[in-house]
Amino acid sequence: MDRRELEVTAELAHLELNDDELESLGAAVSRVVEYFSLMQSVDVSDLEPTTHVLLDRNRLRSDQPDDAVDREALLDNAPEVEDRFILVPNVL
Length: 92
Hints:
Distance between the termini: 53 Å
Order of helices and strands: HHHEE
Radius of gyration: 29 Å
Helix content: 40-55%
Largest sheet: 2 strands, antiparallel
Strand order of the largest sheet: 1-2
Mean pLDDT: 86
Number of helices: 3
């Protein structure tokens, strides 16, 4: 990335960079581009594509119904009930 591209990018990002900061940013961007070039040279043709790095297990609990709440006791404590639903005031 040349200096003019850095200046345009900094302007689009609303960054005010002095000459030293532009030089430092230019060097950092060059290192990142070199690293990506290195990554492109790695042969990954035998790897299966993944959408997430931790696909080996699901960390969420199973979605099973649970009767831990006594529905009747809950409805008895509600200020207003209609059929089997708790009524709440309209917000809008």
